[in-house]
Design goal:
The protein is α/β, with parallel strands linked by helices. The protein contains 6 helices and 14 strands.
Length: 302
């Protein structure tokens, strides 16, 4: 009977010596499942299995220190249910979780709570993407995800001029009235259903240049709005060059957010009609919305 007793005593002494030397078993790779991706490193003393090698843990009873096998000791590791006690790691997750295009922009007015960002892979393409964001408790959150868009057939331009099919870069507001060949789809803005002789004045020599007019064709590049379908089934005005700034050549006019046609535009931004309606119905004047337009590599300007 003495031999088993001696082996038990020697075993207990060995465990105590190893604990005193700080020697532990290797960390279980699955332990990382209890930490959200992108968080700051967690103090491993919190997550190690309880036992004689974890100084911060209460001293276990002799029976608890003698695990029948290595696999049994691993089962004692903290589970996901313990994660709420690690408050610092939960807070660290917030900035990473909210990182998006909108959160990296720095020239958006403080009063703006809705944001549209239109971007492409470079200046020479008419293929673009559009994203929407809304500010909730001071944090920009994605609204509808990424939408496929088209811009001017000659891509973006930092110096758009009248008559050239480029889309002007920059940050702009949304016009106070929305328009369409079709009836009001339920927008929060004033809405004008287009009728015959409704034009957008795109004649730089006209006193009403870059504005909606009803009556005689103003000439120049002016558009007969009621005849342009499906593009003008519904559209919002992007306030580029509004109010007009005198320039030679003229800085351009008639930049809209409208229904997508078969390809690039004359300088506007276009979406499929279902996507456009979602955006137009969401936009609200009291949220002071802005639209940002630029190649993706230059969004840092704004």
């Amino acid at each position: 009977m003495r031999s088993p007793i001696r082996r038990a005593v020697f075993g207990a002494i060995a465990v105590a010596l190893l604990g005193g030397l700080g020697l532990t078993s290797c960390a279980d790779p699955r332990r990382t499942d209890t930490v959200d991706a992108g968080l700051a490193p967690v103090d491993t003393s919190v997550t190690v299995a309880p036992g004689p090698t974890a100084p911060a843990s209460p001293s276990p009873s002799p029976s608890a220190s003698r695990s029948p096998s290595p696999s049994a000791s691993r089962s004692a590791k903290p589970s996901l249910s313990r994660s709420p006690s690690r408050a610092p790691t939960s807070k660290a997750a917030t900035p990473a979780a909210e990182s998006n295009i909108a959160s990296r922009l720095h020239t958006i007015p403080a009063s703006t709570r809705q944001l549209i960002v239109v971007y492409s892979s470079g200046y020479g393409t008419s293929v673009a993407s559009l994203e929407t964001f809304e500010k909730v408790n001071g944090v920009w959150r994605s609204k509808f995800g990424v939408m496929s868009a088209r811009i001017g057939t000659k891509g973006f331009s930092d110096s758009h001029v009248e008559g050239v099919s480029t889309t002007p870069t920059g940050v702009y507001g949304i016009g106070s009235t929305m328009y369409g060949v079709n009836g009001n789809p339920g927008v929060k803005y004033s809405y004008h259903r287009l009728v015959a002789n409704d034009y957008w004045d795109e004649n730089p020599g006209s006193p009403t240049y870059n504005s909606f007019v009803h009556g005689t064709n103003p000439g120049g590049y002016s558009e007969a709005l009621w005849q342009t379908v499906p593009q003008y089934n519904y559209f919002a005005v992007i306030n580029y060059n509004i109010p007009v700034r005198a320039a030679t050549p003229a800085r351009g006019s008639g930049i809209f957010l409208h229904v997508m046609g078969s390809g690039g535009t004359a300088g506007c931004v276009s979406l499929t009609q279902p996507d456009l309606l979602r955006v137009l119905q969401w936009l609200a004047p009291d949220a002071s919305p802005r639209i940002v337009m630029a190649p993706s590599q230059n969004l840092g300007r704004y």
